[in-house]
């Protein structure tokens, strides 16, 4: 049967990548929330694949906020062979630090828990938090651009996005500053890109 009326605009038509990303964040948050509520044992499931990640002397993890998949079991597993660093936002920039004696974890903005201090390092392998990903390594973050900026300034790092399988999208807008992920590890799969 023929449809009447105007042809609906293609999704995203007339929107910049940045506008599209902003809209996608809302639905991505809800999907992640649902996954966090329904999927059990995701942190242990990703930790079980620690051996399959690229070898590294220094690995950066993160302390989860909101409904991010819990990377701590994976960080503990990798910690037997690598130094584990954590992100810290200072003066609007992200650095990675390895905590030492006397460094504590403190509460920061957006519910973040961050090291009070520590020695700055440049990890070889970066475990990246995300709101949504694609099979081709596309990543949607919170929109501050911290990871993309850091990766731009530190070429040659390996990146593995950590996510629930339900956070996959068929596509995401790509901007020139976006750094595609090398792999995505979910509770179901290790997706290697390229
Ligand atoms: N667990 C975790 N740690 C992390 C990150 C992350 O994504 N997850 N980061 C990744 O970069 C850095 C922290 N950056 C962040 C930047 C913004 C927001 C945030 O919640 N933004 C608000 C919107 C801010 C605004 O524009 O007003 C939001 O999404 O509601 C969170 C973390 C480093 N540490
Ligand atoms: N390498 C960069 N150089 C300059 N600006 C950048 C760079 N990376 C990101 N930005 C800026 O940061 C903003 C947010 O970028 P984007 O929407 O890609 O963030 P995100 O990857 O979703 O978030 P995040 O990395 O914080 O989790 C953009 O407006 C962009 O202009």
Automatic annotation (TrEMBL):
Q: Which residues bind ATP?
A: 21-25, 139-147
According to its UniProt entry, the protein's GO biological process terms are: folic acid-containing compound biosynthetic process; tetrahydrofolate interconversion
Q: What is its EC number?
A: 6.3.3.2
Q: What is this protein called?
A: 5-formyltetrahydrofolate cyclo-ligase
| Reaction(s) catalysed by this chain's protein | (6S)-5-formyl-5,6,7,8-tetrahydrofolate + ATP = (6R)-5,10-methenyltetrahydrofolate + ADP + phosphate
One MF term in the entry's GO annotations: 5-formyltetrahydrofolate cyclo-ligase activity
Residues that, per the record, bind substrate: 63, 68
Protein family per UniProt: Belongs to the 5-formyltetrahydrofolate cyclo-ligase family.
Q: Which cofactor does it need?
A: Mg(2+)
Q: Which UniProt keywords apply?
A: ATP-binding, Ligase, Magnesium, Metal-binding, Nucleotide-binding
Q: What is the lineage of its organism?
A: Bacteria, Pseudomonadati, Pseudomonadota, Alphaproteobacteria, Hyphomicrobiales
**Superkingdom of origin:** Bacteria
